[in-house]
Amino acid sequence: MGIFSSIKNAIFGDDEKEEIKADPKPTATSGPKERAPISQEEVEKRIANIPGAEDLNWRTSIVDLMKLVKIDPSYENRKELAQEMGNTGYSGSAEDNIKLHRDVMDEIAKAGGVVPGELKN
Questions:
Q1: Which of 13, 38, 63, 96 could form a disulfide with 73 if both were Cys (CB 3.0 to 4.6 A apart)?
Q2: Does residue 113 register a pLDDT over 60?
């Protein structure tokens, strides 16, 4: 499981476990779950409900967002996350961290809380 999947699952739950419960024997018509995009406000509302959210600056800090969902915010993990998001030039600068945070929040909202297949590993 990729770092983005871990962040998403901490916020919304585990898609794969939900799929297994809902349809343990996939058929030709069943496939990955897809949800309609959700608003940034809905994403933020769900994150705000995580215990400890009030103590961290997760709305703007990728480091604090990762801490909130209990993922090591080390440079190596942030670099791996950036690569999952398609950013191969991540250097760890403040600008890179702001962009990474924005990319993660946007991707969660676009996917309706479901991690797209290409970001699962």
A1: 63
A2: yes
**Which has more confidence, 18 or 39?**
39
pLDDT of residue 24: 46
Residue 29 included in any domain: yes
Name the DSSP letter for residue 89: T
* CA atoms 63, 42, 104, 1: torsion sign: positive
Name residue 21's amino acid.
K
Within-domain flag for 68? yes
- Considering the domain boundaries, does residue 120 fall inside one? no
The domain total for the chain is 1
Other CB atoms within 10 Å distance of the CB of residue 76: 10
Judge contact between 11 and 47, C-beta under 8 A: yes
Instruction: Give residue 94's domain range.
Output: 3-115
Task: Look at residue 13 and tell me if it is in a domain.
Answer: yes
Backbone φ and ψ for 19, nearest 5 degrees, come out as -65, -40
